[in-house]
Amino acid sequence: MFVIGGIQKTTLVDFPQKVAAIVFTQGCNFRCGYCHNSELLNFDLKPKYITEEFFEFLKARKGKLDGVVITGGEPTIQSGLYDFVKEIKLLGFAVKLDTNGTNPQIIRKLLKANLLDYVAMDIKAPIEKYEEIVGVKVNKEDILESINLIKSIGIDYEFRTTVVKSQLSFDDFEKIGQMLKGAKRYYLQKFIPSKIYNPEFLNAKTYSDKEFENICQKLQLYVDFVQYR
Q1: What are the CA-CA distances from residue 83 to residues 37, 86, 113, 185, 214 (Å)?
Q2: What are the pLDDT digits (tens) for 95-133?
Q3: Which of 33, 97, 156, 191 would give a disulfide with 198, using CB separation of 3.0 to 4.6 Å?
Q4: CA distances from 133 to 7, 90, 128 (A)
Q5: Residue 134 sits in a domain of what CATH number?
Q6: What per-residue confidence (pLDDT) applies to 43?
Q7: b/e burial code for range 153-162 (CB count within 10 A of at least 16 → b)
Q8: CA-CA distance, 89 to 107, in Å (whole number)?
Q9: Which domain holds residue 223?
């Protein structure tokens, strides 16, 4: 089953160097307080969009769209993800997968079948702080396996972290750098309080540009390219 929670018909920024559509999957296995897609967290089995309708839309957009971003929620908890991605590829579109890394098995399966063109994995915290940040029990070995798997793949990828100042210290970024050692691209994303899962985060802050520059400099010891946005 593949449950679509939302669709954005065009994006110029979410899939590097491609014009793409975005599919938001319904349901997530994390409960990050700062999540800005909180309407997608619950496992509602009633799709807001029918997959067949989405594929008809894609067929009509051939020559205008280059690819599809599959995000969430968490796409890898969808049992129908493999078949959904395969259908997109059969139509001739590139696929970018956004994931929290909790299901390395499905990531590996998609990669082995050459069904992904770009992977973006969210890094929530140093591994020992994961459960504190995401609000649920976590199989930490799965997170580390996904990191190593993505670092070793032949396709393009990025790691990224949404930064809430009260959650992640300078020392935490040192530990994240060690986790990602040898990765080619890592983005730090400024937390912007808007519609979020936990209202307490409406007053949360992120780091200043100067502080981000210092953090990036520290991380460049471990990762080829580091940038904040």
Answers
A1: 24, 5, 11, 29, 43
A2: 999 999 999 999 999 999 999 999 999 999 999 999 999
A3: 33
A4: 27, 38, 10
A5: 3.20.20.70
A6: 85
A7: eeeebbbbbb
A8: 16
A9: 4-228
